[in-house]
Design goal:
Blueprint lengths: L54 E2 L10 E7 L5 E8 L2 E10 L2 E2 L3 E2 L8 E6 L5 E6 L16 E8 L2 E2 L3 E2 L9 E7 L5 E8 L2 E7 L1 E2 L2 E2 L3 E2 L11 E5 L5 E6 L10 E6 L10 E2 L11 E5 L5 E6 L15 H8 L8 E6 L1 H4 L6
Antiparallel strand pairs: 1-24, 2-3, 3-4, 4-5, 4-6, 7-8, 8-9, 9-10, 9-11, 12-13, 13-14, 14-17, 15-16, 18-19, 19-20, 20-21, 22-23, 23-24
């Protein structure tokens, strides 16, 4: 987790959040009712796929007005994980399609006791890597993000097991965060000595153990700080965020660097204004089928920018339940935008 995107502007109204029925043809039409979570089916909560323009993913279902980011999912798109941050903490949520119907998101079994962020599900669905501030064994608790380490939980027929700290060389005295896995288990992640200096590393999995770290070359690590990198399952491209490049379009922009079969990286390219704007971009990922790009942004819906004078408390609460309120939302867009940037030779 990169600290220059602060956890600010949250809407703390969990006690008033009630989700109602939703139209499959227009997922933005979810109404607040007391009937519970809507009846949804199909991959990715049955949401209408986006085109070449970014759209909020699952308004009032996933993107709810809370500070929401970090999408991860199963290979078939029928199990979703994401992060919700709120006053004093953050937790990883999970929703599954069971018997053809999506279940209301709930705190994941391995989360809920500490500040957890950035879920990463292995290709076979058996391992969950994530960032947590929980103390290593034998160490005292520290406030806030006093610890930033990558933890792992293994899934069996009995469910998710107790999360364990990733061993060396992944864990060090520095901060490690935002894990991302290739299909064959190669791990990409960010290591930062301090909030202003961070770089992207990888480690190959050999005989069940992670080997010596490799810092990615200057085509990726060109500045003092780049972070939150997602690696394509086949390792053909890398998405990451940085706020320090001259062609930045927002506070933090997302870039893509392409990798050849010979392990040569192309210079990173800005993903462009469809993704990067004044709301910034962070925690990007692509669905396992390669169709959709997900990312976090704090862009605002201009329709919500109107005077508050005379509003009642309930009206203010309703406003707070709107996605696009300036807190973080999860957006998605056709992933063809990435292939359009791939070098021709």
């Amino acid at each position: 987790m990169k600290h220059n995107i602060g956890l600010v502007g949250f809407v703390f109204i969990a006690s008033t959040l009630v989700l109602g029925a939703c139209s499959q043809s227009d997922p933005t039409s979810v109404e607040l009712e007391t009937s519970g979570f809507p009846n949804l089916s199909g991959p990715l909560m049955g949401q209408t796929p986006p085109g070449p323009e970014a759209a909020i993913f699952a308004p009032r279902l996933v993107s709810t007005g809370f500070f929401t980011r970090d999408m991860a999912m199963s290979q078939d798109g029928r199990e979703l994980f994401f992060t919700v941050a709120f006053s004093g903490g953050s937790t990883i949520m999970v929703s599954q399609e069971v018997g053809g119907v999506w279940q209301e998101p709930r705190v994941a079994p391995f989360s809920g006791h500490n500040r957890d962020f950035e879920p990463c599900l292995s290709a076979n669905g058996s391992r969950m890597l994530f960032l947590s501030n929980r103390p290593p064994e034998g160490q005292p608790e520290k406030p806030g993000w006093g610890y930033q380490n990558i933890w792992v939980s293994e899934r069996s027929d009995d469910g998710w097991g107790e999360a364990l700290l990733m061993p060396e060389p992944i864990t060090s005295d520095a901060n490690e965060f935002f894990p991302s896995l290739t299909t064959n288990g190669t791990l990409y992640f960010t290591r930062g000595e301090d909030p202003e200096h961070a770089a992207i590393y990888r480690s190959h999995l050999e005989e069940g153990e992670y080997r010596e770290l490799e810092k990615l070359p200057a085509e990726v690590n060109a500045n003092d700080s780049q972070y939150n990198a997602f690696i394509a399952p086949d390792e053909s491209f890398l998405l990451f965020a940085t706020a320090e490049r001259e062609d930045s379009l927002g506070g933090s922009d997302c870039y893509v660097a392409f990798r050849s079969p010979e392990d040569v990286w192309s210079p990173a390219v800005n993903l462009g204004p469809q993704v990067n704007d004044e709301g910034g971009c962070d925690s990007a990922m692509v669905t396992p089928d390669g169709k959709y790009l997900f990312f976090m942004s704090t862009r605002r819906d201009q329709a919500l920018d109107k005077p508050l004078t005379g509003m009642t408390l309930s009206e203010l609460q309703e406003r707070g339940l709107q996605s696009g309120n300036g807190s973080a939302d999860i957006y998605w867009i056709d992933a063809g935008i990435i292939e359009d940037l791939r070098p021709s030779n």
